[in-house]
Structures are given as structure tokens and as C-alpha cells.
Design brief:
Blueprint (H helix, E strand, L loop, with lengths): L2 H4 L11 E7 L2 H10 L50 E11 L8 E16 L2 E14 L7 E10 L20 E5 L3 H10 L10 H6 L10 H15 L5 E8 L9 E7 L5 E7 L5 E9 L1
Antiparallel strand pairs: 1-3, 2-5, 2-7, 3-4, 4-5, 6-8, 7-10, 8-9, 9-10
Helix pairs in contact: 2-3
Length: 289
């Protein structure tokens, strides 16, 4: 390994660290996300099953204002390793849905750092952190949900850096829906998930400091919309597993499309999102019961 990668090798000491948090699946966040996604109004009564990925409304980080870094995230260290690279993105996740979480449930989340990988990329050093989250309902031995969360850290964008060539998205999907992301949608989703990352709501910061052309649409928001596409197109099916990988960012003010194609036997679906120029921004897949 090069010296620059060796300098980060100590971050692997965080592998195996874990933390346990407790929360309750309350009604208000469910009703608020339902409205944010422009879905028909619901009562969110006790006992109602939580839609897949809506668990992201809970176990929210509550760092004090003085603990935040310049980018709006908590300063590095603690449970997650103190990666010194400036740009932090949600690269993807994999899920197994074992049993539904329900409004009113008391839930425990056990999080463990499964891996820390340091690599040298075309634009500099990269650090990949994989976190395993297991969510347990009270009085249930096995997890209701298992999630693997992939985080990537990159160096700050440098003058002359060339973005990788885009991948054209498939066309002619049987399932399609267009989304018009605006700054209000991004602000509301940030607020609901208590996400202080300034790339999603602070236009001056995201354009002048991180070098993006606009506010970045949250990867988890796109993933949630892709699962919602499955719910709309196959309302009588349950989602057993889901995975997504972020391919490239997309920004407010430009529409993007949600696309899906069920398998011939109907037991799975290929899913993807494309930006307004037809470039792939997210690849995903779901298995159905």
C-alpha cells in the first residue's frame, strides 16, 4: 500500500465496535413522511405496519450543535471511525425484512462496524465503512430488520478533477414514475431524518465548498421512492429484501425518473433511477413474497 493509504490503516481498529440504541415507532414521523412523499393521508394508528425503509425516521442522531463539523455532520470519531477525508456520502445499503415493525413498537437497534476498507481511487484516497444494523422489537428474539449500510469518504474535489463517465440508464421500463425534486422536498426530508448535512439544503455551501452544481438529492430518499414504486405497482406483494447502490448524484431543479421491471416469475424486480439526461443515478433490486 502507498504511504497515504498506510496513514489511514489505523481506522480499521474500529471494526467490531458496536452501539445499542432504543426508540419507539411513533405516529407523527410516519404521517409527516407520508405527506412529504405526497401520498394519500393516513391515520398511522397503533399497530399499523411501517413501510419498508421508513425505519430511517427513528434512531436519529441527536448531536449537540457544538459537536457538529463544518459540513453539518457530527465531527468524526466515536462509534464511526474519525475519517479525515472531507466528502462523506451514503454509497448504498442491503436489507432483509424479517417481520414488520409497527406503529407503537418499542424497538432496539444494535449497530456494529463490520468493515473498514482503505483504497486509492482515481481522484485520491477513499475509505469505505460498512455498518450492520439489526432492529429488534421488544420481546422478540430475532431481528425484525437487518440492514448493511455502506458509507464512502472521499477527498475534497480538486480543480481539474474529471468526473467518471456516466452510465446510460435502461429505457422502456414497464414501471415508470417521474419526480421533480425541489429545495422544499429536500429540506423536509432532511428535517424528518434530522440530517444536518449541508449539501442537501445549503446552496452556497454545496456549490462553493463541495463543488456540486446544486442541492444534492438524498440517496436514501431516492431509495425510498424506488421502494414506493414497487408498492404502487405490486400493492399485494410484500418486500422480503432490497438493496441499492448510489451511482452518481442528482440535484434539485432537475427531474429524475424511477424505473422498475418485474422478473418473469414475479418474485423479484430490477429497479433504477435516472436523471433528466437519462444517466443512471441509482441501481436497486427487490425480492418479493
Amino acid at each position: 500500500m502507498s504511504d497515504t493509504i498506510a496513514d489511514l490503516a489505523h481506522l480499521r481498529q474500529w471494526i467490531g465496535q458496536s452501539e445499542t440504541l432504543n426508540d419507539e415507532i411513533t405516529r407523527a414521523p410516519v404521517r409527516a413522511l407520508n405527506a412529504t412523499l405526497d401520498l394519500p393521508e393516513i391515520d398511522a394508528s397503533v399497530g399499523m405496519p411501517l413501510q419498508p425503509l421508513w425505519h430511517w425516521l427513528y434512531f436519529l442522531p441527536a448531536h449537540r450543535q457544538s459537536e457538529l463539523g463544518r459540513d453539518g455532520h457530527a465531527r468524526r470519531g466515536g462509534f464511526l471511525p474519525p475519517v479525515p477525508l472531507q466528502r462523506r456520502m451514503w454509497a448504498g445499503s442491503q436489507f432483509e425484512f424479517h417481520s414488520p415493525l409497527r406503529v407503537g413498537d418499542s424497538v432496539k437497534r444494535v449497530s456494529t462496524i463490520d468493515d473498514v476498507a482503505i483504497k486509492e481511487g482515481r481522484t485520491g484516497r477513499l475509505v469505505f465503512v460498512k455498518v450492520r444494523h439489526e432492529l429488534f422489537r421488544a420481546d422478540h428474539a430475532g431481528p425484525a430488520l437487518t440492514e448493511f449500510h455502506d458509507v464512502v469518504y472521499r477527498e475534497a474535489k480538486r480543480p481539474g478533477d474529471v468526473e467518471p463517465a456516466p452510465t446510460p440508464a435502461r429505457i422502456g421500463a414497464p414501471w415508470q414514475r417521474n419526480v421533480e425534486p425541489d429545495d422544499v422536498l429536500l429540506f423536509r426530508y432532511s428535517a424528518l431524518t434530522f440530517n444536518g448535512h449541508r449539501i442537501h439544503y445549503d446552496r452556497e455551501y454545496v456549490t462553493k465548498v463541495e463543488g456540486y452544481p446544486g442541492l444534492v438529492v438524498h440517496g436514501p430518499l431516492i431509495a425510498t421512492l424506488l421502494i414506493d414504486l414497487v408498492r404502487r405497482q405490486a400493492p399485494d406483494r410484500e418486500i422480503a429484501s432490497f438493496q441499492f447502490r448510489a451511482v452518481r448524484p442528482t440535484f434539485d431543479g432537475k427531474s429524475f425518473s424511477l424505473n422498475g421491471a418485474p422478473s418473469a416469475d414475479g418474485r423479484s424486480a430490477s429497479l433504477w433511477a435516472a436523471d433528466h439526461e437519462g444517466r443512471l443515478i441509482m441501481q436497486a433490486a427487490a425480492t418479493l413474497n
